[in-house]
Amino acid sequence: MKNLKLLFLTLFSIISLSVFSQTQVYTTQTSGPNICDGTAVLDTTNINMTSIYWTGMGMIINQGSYIVTNLCPGTYSVTFTTSNGTPVNLTFVITAGTFNPCTNFGGFTAPTNSVDSTTCDGIITATVTGGTAPYTYLWSNGSTTFEIPYLCPGSYCCYVTDANGCNLTLCDTIGVQSPNFGDTLIISNTGTCNSPVATLFNSIEDCNLDYNSIDSAYINSVILPTNPLDSNIICLWNIVDTNGVALVYTTLFPNVLTTGCYNFQLTLYCYQKSLNYKTVIINDSYYVGISGINELSMNQRKLIKVIDLMGRTTKLEPNRLLIMCYNDGTTEKVFITE
After folding, report:
1. Residue 18 backbone phi and psi in degrees, to 5
2. What share of the chain has pLDDT > 70, as a percent?
3. Which of 36, 116, 146, 147 could disulfide-pair with 178, CB 3.0 to 4.6 Å?
4. How many Å apart are CA 189 and CA 156, to the nearest integer?
5. pTM (2 decimals)?
6. Distance of alpha carbon 21 from its chain centroid, rounded?
């Protein structure tokens, strides 16, 4: 019986020490197979701090501390003495985590403002940090280069993808440099267009508006054409002042022929110089579902090209009288105001 009791106490001590040992080191894996950012921490209960020695690669890597950092994947050991004088030697493994190639993928933009509210010569440059080249760029105005020039005041976003498929969104705003028409207030609303079909511009001169009292501005509603032969969209804007009073402005955007999400931009301005705001640029987006435009067989035509009055092929641009040529031989003169 005495021998059996002694055997029981010995087994209990071994089991207790084993359990005690297994619960002393808490580890975190590295963030990648070739990255040394693992950690190991000792439970500080009943441990003599001065007796702690961490070893790895056949050498002492730390001593007198409950935690060791910057560990590479591999096998390590730690020795210490408990408060009752029991020496303990523990072996532990730092495992390698799965590397996420998108972890350090980032970037920033550098804007150069337009000279004034009507001259579109702003520039935004996107710079990518981290990630894996080559990078692809897609701006909200359709450009695919890292830098976009000739920008009107407003908000622009760049959607960047690297070789690993990591995605990044960078947004910035073009303001104005010159005080020719007073200060410019830019209001950009968070819309639903990640990659808008196009940006539609319009402007209204209003010198009676108190530009300093504007609190918010946004699209109130969009009226789509009901006639299949009509491609004009009416947009109603709400301008709300600091007293909660709302003014409504109506703009017409002609020749919108494609269903999709558009960025709408309205510029309110006054040419009378003042220290107050005299230009407000409002950006908002709206999904345009143009049902019925091509429902009539007589109107199933496609735009072939756009030409100027000299017959030269050009782009569909605002503030120019242009001619739209269709595949059925018809033409249409258009003038889109900015």
Report:
1. -65, -45
2. 76
3. 116
4. 12
5. 0.38
6. 48
